[in-house]
Structure prediction request, 179 residues.
Amino acid sequence: MIRRYAGLAIFAAVVMGSGLGCSTSANKVEVKVTYDGQPLSDAMVSFSSEGGKGASGLTDASGMCKMSMTDAAKGKEGVESGTYNVSVVKTERPELEEKGKKDPSLAMKEIQDKYKIPKAAPVGPPVGPPKAGGASGAFKSLIPEKYNDPKKSGFTFRVPEDTAKVVEINLTSDKAEKK
Prediction:
């Protein structure tokens, strides 16, 4: 009798430990971003929902990225079901990036000096989307500003309905839109 209950307890522990029936399913979402028809590398793609859920991914040289929930464990890919507004951010990469790998404090001091960030200000990336012209203290956006804002980008996707195949996000420059 004790063996029967011990076996049942072990089975229950294995089922609960594997997370069967206990977790929110994540849908595989792959995104391809182009800018004026060319793959856009090193761009941050973000999905955000009205309910506060979010997912993000960084594009590779071919403009592709795999989206992951922002609160997911490192390396866990996928997006929870829902409707998401999309933003794409591509900023200049300061020439100090390589220096920062060797001596982060020196690199941060040089960034503070270059972008005229007050010494008392917190050091780190600028808060909010970058400004198109590269406002003082912010990194310059390399794509039109509207794409930095999920409410203005013009892109909304329903997961999983719109994401069964690779999601294509085709950005255009202001010049291309005026033609």
Observations:
- The two ends are 81 Å apart (CA to CA).
- The first helix runs from residue 2 to 18.
- The beta strands are 30-35, 38-39, 44-48, 54-58, 64-66, 68-69, 82-89, 156-159, 167-171.
